[in-house]
Automatic annotation (TrEMBL):
<dbReference type="InterPro" id="IPR017872">
    <property type="entry name" value="Pyrmidine_PPase_CS"/>
</dbReference>
<keyword id="KW-0808">Transferase</keyword>
<dbReference type="InterPro" id="IPR036320">
    <property type="entry name" value="Glycosyl_Trfase_fam3_N_dom_sf"/>
</dbReference>
<dbReference type="InterPro" id="IPR017459">
    <property type="entry name" value="Glycosyl_Trfase_fam3_N_dom"/>
</dbReference>
<keyword id="KW-0328">Glycosyltransferase</keyword>
<dbReference type="InterPro" id="IPR035902">
    <property type="entry name" value="Nuc_phospho_transferase"/>
</dbReference>
<protein>
    <recommendedName>
        <fullName>Putative thymidine phosphorylase</fullName>
        <ecNumber>2.4.2.4</ecNumber>
    </recommendedName>
</protein>
<dbReference type="InterPro" id="IPR028579">
    <property type="entry name" value="Thym_Pase_Put"/>
</dbReference>
<comment type="similarity">
    <text>Belongs to the thymidine/pyrimidine-nucleoside phosphorylase family. Type 2 subfamily.</text>
</comment>
<dbReference type="InterPro" id="IPR013102">
    <property type="entry name" value="PYNP_C"/>
</dbReference>
<dbReference type="InterPro" id="IPR000053">
    <property type="entry name" value="Thymidine/pyrmidine_PPase"/>
</dbReference>
<dbReference type="Pfam" id="PF07831">
    <property type="entry name" value="PYNP_C"/>
</dbReference>
<dbReference type="Pfam" id="PF02885">
    <property type="entry name" value="Glycos_trans_3N"/>
</dbReference>
<dbReference type="Pfam" id="PF00591">
    <property type="entry name" value="Glycos_transf_3"/>
</dbReference>
<dbReference type="InterPro" id="IPR036566">
    <property type="entry name" value="PYNP-like_C_sf"/>
</dbReference>
<dbReference type="InterPro" id="IPR013466">
    <property type="entry name" value="Thymidine/AMP_Pase"/>
</dbReference>
<feature type="domain" description="Pyrimidine nucleoside phosphorylase C-terminal">
    <location>
        <begin position="423"/>
        <end position="490"/>
    </location>
</feature>
C-alpha cells in the first residue's frame, strides 16, 4: 500500500487510516480499532486502525497520523507492507497484576519492552496503570519497575563525584522553583543536569514554563554541551530517551487523571538515575487540595522514595512543604515564568513565597552537594540570589540552550472580583488549576491566571481575586462559567 500523510494529530498514539473496502482489510479481516503493523524502508510502527469510506483515500493507500508518520520516518507515496500486529505477550502479565498477582523484575522488563516497542495500545497502557493504582505496587515491585524504566532508555554519565537533582511531586499550582534552584546550585559550582516534564494534570509543567524562556527540546549532545559550559540545564526530558516509557505513561495518566504512588516513584527516580544523578532533593507539598493530602501520607511517600532511591544508588532528601495554597501569583506557563524572572532579578514585586520555597530547597541541595557546610546552606543560597549570581547563571544557561526570550502575553485578560468584602480563608488548588486549564493552559503558553490574593488577605467588594489570561473571549467565558459553579477561593464575610 502507498503511504499518505493525512495531517491527523493524535496526542502520541500512532493511527492508520484505511478504506473499509481495501484489499488488506478484506483479506485480513481487519476492523476499526484493530492494531496493524506498517513497515517500510527497514522501519516499522504499530498503529491503531481507523476505517474510512471512499473519498478520503484510494483503495491502495494507507493514511498515517503525524505520530505514526514521524516514527516510521515515512516519505509521501512510499510503498509499505501492512499486516495485523502480533499480540503483545506482556498483556498476560498485566492481567496477572490486575487479578491481584505480584510482578517480578523480568515481568516489568517484558512489559516495558513492549511499551517501548509500541506494542501496547492506549487502552492496554491504561489497564496497566490502573492496575498499579487499584492494587498498589509494593517496594519490591516499585524498585523493579524503576529499574525496567531505566533499562529501556539512554543514560547520561558525568565526570563529577556528585551530580545533583531536584524534583517536586506536584499538585501545587505555581510551584515553579526549579529554574531558581538550578540557577543557585549551578552558580555555587554544583553539577545539576535538570530534565523536567511537561504538564500531566496541571496547567503547566516545568518544561512548559521554561520553554517560554528558552528552548528545552535539546538532544543528549546539546544537554552535555550546556552542562559542561554552565554546570546545569533545564530541559524537557521527553526530547531525549531518558526513561522513554515514562513519556507514554504520562500521556495516559493525563487522559485518565491518575498518578498512583508506585508509578510516581518509578517515574521520578528512573529519570534521576537515567540523567546520571547521585543526589536528589524532593519537594512534597502537603495540603487538603494538594496531591498529597496529609503529613502521614507525605512521610510514607518520603520513606518510600528514600528506600527505593537507595536501592538504585541515589541519595534522596525529602522536604515536606506547605501545600495549602498556590505558590507565587502565576498559574500557567508564561504567568509562572514571569514570577521566576521577578525572583531571579530581585524585582520589588517578586512573590516572596516562591523565593522562600526555592531558597529552602536550595539550602538542602547546597549542603547535600558539599557546596555549603551543614547549617550554612540557607545563608549561601540567599546571598547568591540577592547579589545577582543566580540571575547571571540562569541567563547564561538560557543563552547556551538557545537564547533567553520573554514570555508571551495573553490576548485577553479579565479580572474576577470578590462579590463581597471579607477575608480569604481557603484556596482550592485543584479548582484553581482547572480554571487555568479552561483558560487554555498549558496548550496556549500565554494562558492561565494571575492571583491577586492569598489565604489570610482581606478584600473589599469588587476587588480582583485573580486575572484570567486567555487567547479568546470564549475561553474566558468557559473559565468563568466553571468559577460560577465551583469557586476556588473562599471569602468569609
Amino acid at each position: 500500500m502507498r503511504l499518505v500523510r493525512v495531517g491527523l494529530h493524535s496526542q502520541g498514539e500512532p493511527l492508520a487510516l484505511m478504506r473499509t473496502d481495501c484489499h488488506v482489510c478484506r483479506s485480513e479481516g481487519l476492523h476499526a480499532r484493530a492494531r496493524v503493523e506498517i513497515a517500510t524502508g527497514g522501519r516499522r510502527v504499530t498503529a491503531r486502525l481507523l476505517q474510512v469510506e471512499a473519498g478520503l483515500l484510494n483503495p491502495h493507500e494507507i493514511g498515517l497520523s503525524e505520530d505514526a508518520w514521524m516514527r516510521l520516518g515515512a516519505t509521501e507515496g512510499a510503498v509499505a507492507t501492512v499486516r495485523p500486529a502480533p499480540p503483545a505477550a506482556s498483556m498476560s502479565l498485566v492481567r496477572h497484576k490486575l487479578y491481584g498477582g505480584a510482578l517480578a523484575q523480568k515481568d516489568f522488563t517484558a512489559i516495558l519492552g513492549d511499551v517501548q516497542a509500541g506494542l501496547l495500545s492506549d487502552v492496554q497502557l491504561a489497564t496497566f496503570l490502573s492496575a498499579g493504582a487499584a492494587l498498589p505496587l509494593d517496594d519490591e515491585e516499585t524498585t523493579a519497575l524503576t529499574r525496567a524504566m531505566v533499562v529501556v532508555g539512554d543514560r547520561l554519565s558525568w565526570d563529577a563525584p556528585r551530580v545533583m537533582d531536584k524534583h517536586c511531586v506536584g499538585g501545587l499550582p505555581g510551584n515553579r522553583t526549579t529554574p531558581i534552584v538550578v540557577a543557585i546550585a549551578a552558580a555555587c559550582g554544583l553539577v545539576i543536569p535538570k530534565t523536567s516534564s511537561r504538564a500531566i494534570t496541571s496547567p503547566a509543567g516545568t518544561a512548559d514554563t521554561m520553554e517560554t524562556l528558552a528552548p528545552v527540546d535539546l538532544d543528549l549532545p546539546a544537554i552535555r554541551r550546556v552542562v559542561e559550559a554552565e554546570g546545569g540545564c533545564i530541559v524537557w526530558g521527553g526530547a531525549v530517551r531518558l526513561s522513554p516509557a515514562d513519556d507514554a505513561f504520562v500521556r495516559i495518566e493525563r487522559e485518565i487523571d491518575i498518578d498512583a504512588e508506585g508509578q510516581l516513584i518509578a517515574s521520578v527516580l528512573s529519570k534521576k538515575v537515567a540523567a546520571g544523578s547521585t543526589h536528589v532533593v524532593i519537594d512534597i507539598p502537603v495540603g487538603p487540595t494538594a496531591k498529597v493530602r496529609t503529613a502521614e501520607a507525605a512521610r510514607g511517600l518520603a520513606t518510600r522514595l528514600s528506600l527505593v532511591g537507595a536501592r538504585l544508588g541515589l541519595k534522596v532528601a525529602c522536604l515536606l512543604t506547605d501545600g495549602s495554597q498556590p505558590v507565587g501569583r502565576g498559574i500557567g506557563p508564561a504567568p509562572e515564568a514571569r514570577d521566576v524572572l521577578a525572583v531571579l532579578r530581585g524585582e520589588p514585586e517578586a512573590p516572596l513565597d516562591l523565593a522562600e520555597r526555592a531558597l529552602a530547597l536550595s539550602a538542602v541541595l547546597l549542603e547535600t552537594g558539599g557546596a555549603a557546610a551543614p547549617g550554612t546552606g540557607a545563608d549561601l543560597a540567599r546571598a547568591v540570589l540577592s547579589d545577582g549570581r543566580a540571575w547571571a547563571k540562569f541567563a547564561a544557561i538560557c543563552e547556551v540552550q538557545g537564547g533567553l526570550r520573554q514570555p508571551p502575553e495573553a490576548a485577553q485578560i479579565r479580572a474576577v472580583t470578590a462579590h463581597f468584602a471579607g477575608q480569604i480563608t481557603a484556596i482550592d488548588n485543584r479548582r484553581l488549576a482547572r480554571l487555568a486549564k479552561l483558560a487554555g493552559a498549558p496548550g496556549n503558553p500565554a494562558a492561565g491566571l494571575v492571583l491577586a490574593v492569598h489565604v489570610g488577605d482581606t478584600v473589599a467588594k469588587g476587588q480582583p481575586l485573580f486575572h484570567l489570561h486567555a487567547a479568546s473571549t470564549g475561553e474566558i467565558a468557559y473559565a468563568i462559567d466553571y468559577w460560577t459553579g465551583a469557586p476556588a477561593i473562599t471569602v468569609a464575610g
